[in-house]
Amino acid sequence: MIELRALQHRYGKAVVLDVPRLSIDASTVLVGHNGAGKSTLLLSLAGLLVPTEGVITIGGSPAGSPAARRRVSFVPDSPALFDDLTLADQMLYVARLHGGRRAEPTEASGELVALLDAGELLDRLPSAMSKGQRQKASLLVATARPCAVLLADEPTTGLDAESRNALLRGFAYLEQAAGIIIVSSTHDGQLIAATPGRLRLSGGRLADEDGEAGESSDQADIEVGESQREPAGAAPPPSSRWRSRSRFSEE
Amino acid sequence: MAVLALDAPDGSRLGDDLYSLYLAAIAWLVIPMYASAVAQVLPSDITDFSRLVDVAAAVALATPIWFGYRGGPFLVNRAVVLHELGSPLDPRGVLAPRLARQAVAYAALAGLAANALTAMGDPEEFGYRLAARNSFVAAVAVLAAVLQIPGWLVAWKAGRGWRRPWPAVAANLAGIGAVGAVVVLDRSLSSPLGLTALAAAVVSGAVSAWMVLSRVPVPHLWRRATALDEMRSAALSFDFQRVLVSLRRAVDQTEAHRSPIRLARPWMPRALWRYLASVERGWNTRLGQVVAGALAAALVVRADPANGVVALALAATGMIVGFELASPIASTAGQIWFGVHYPRGSSPVLRGQVATAAVIALVIAAAALGWLAGSEQAGTALASAGLFAFGTLAAAVQGRLGSPDLAWMVDKLGPILAPALWIRALAGPILCLALTVVVSHGWLRPDGYTPWPALTLAVVSAAVVVACYPLEKTLP
Description:
heterodimer, A: 24% strand
């Protein structure tokens, strides 16, 4: 679904992202220290940052292109909500922006409202929500329209333990029931443990579990795909179902 | 406390709307007053001033090249970038209305400013017809200029993988060339040839904008929207240094104070100047504008231009212009924690306010001298200039103390500061209303024959005190 080739992004002379080759076909969590390049990578995938070099394709379309934007939905680290619309109206508006005048929010977003216990937020404006509630609202708005990939930049920031568990259940539902690939960045141990694939970034480069950055020039290709998922039918509860495994971590 | 007055419980931003309505009412007062003044046509053989305006208009048409490089006119929030521009809809549907609003707003502002400046120069000799002519030329030139900016924006920001919009660039250059040629050929922009060139510039600007609006780089808009969001967040957490850093990011200025044309306006840091941005208004505000316009027109029908309404119009124009200049400065530099928390010297930011205050003081002094010298003509012109300055002062008061943003922040800071700030925030509107009353009754005349000169002095002094008194001193 997501392909990166010779991706590099620089701010001035500083290289903040250097990924020679990467394929992502399953839900993946990006981990790493502050400044490791997680958000830069997510923004590049969302088409909101043009990398200095390299190619990103989402389902075969260049990131940022209209076709790629249709496939990708993005939950930024700081919620981007319309100030003057209630959550329900925002979900409806976003659904109709993508699906036309008669479109309704996706079933998945409706399920998420229940899973996140966000029913009481539907009639509220963002100004009447707490930080954690806005974070939930941001996720709900992002899933109100169809997408194949959900990018989430530190989605658990500002959430209490209960809300974080609810978010994990929501992510599990999106992946299992709606078939959405979720690529998120986080420092949250629970989310890391609950996500099938894991990519560690260090200094803008893919790194091993010890945090040692790989060489950009001769680094092996990385793939995070279906093979990393738990076998179907052996579905444990959400908290344990979202376990972490990736070919990269195994290598 | 503040939020109860400014934000309705349903979050409809009642305060913002009322404040916009207040400004719109004043703007609508200006236009019909000048329209009525045109009826008193005076002959004009002054061509030099028109020539100056023509050259300025031609130069204004070239400035979009730089403004495009600096990021263009669009100031949209993150939700709009993420959801509206990220949708399959044509981005032109999202951006074109915003561009049109900004173009019209800036054109109106330019027209009003040119009108006021012409009238201030020597109204009896220049005449209102010349003021109207200059106003029209300035407005159309600025309209064309704003329409050109997206073309230059996309041309400059066309990063890797983006095709540069050469047809739009060619259209922009054609518009600049047409107006420039008329000016170089020493022909007036108000002549049929000049009007044709101006029309061509507007059309070519509109065409170029339409060609590129679907290609305005979304990453650029996202970066700007995020930076502005961070700026607001930093202001709320007293992190003024981060406010400035975010501000520079918003205008693609990563290194401060390294502008090659900084000498053109050394009194104001570039980032702050560039922060001048339009305010999006809803349908309710626009409806309010229409109602206010109708009311203002009715007022003008009953008004006597001889008793000072033209001067009032000048003051109102000054207020609008001054507000536009003062509010962005105030929104960053004039905040209450600035003097306490900003880790570096405040002069780089505050010098804009200081310079403005100095200019205002000079104009007022000149007006007073002309009046004392007994020169009727000088007294008339300079007294008008004084009123203009008063309007600017009132605007500074408004910009500094009356912005809904500040009141909102005050609410966040707690009720201790709210009463004192509210009284001061209301001082600007109260002073403007007071000015309206005294001028409409003829107590304060622009021609040097005011019956109560002490009143003039008291009003202007009060404005000076309120505008210049350091807000930081109200802190506990």
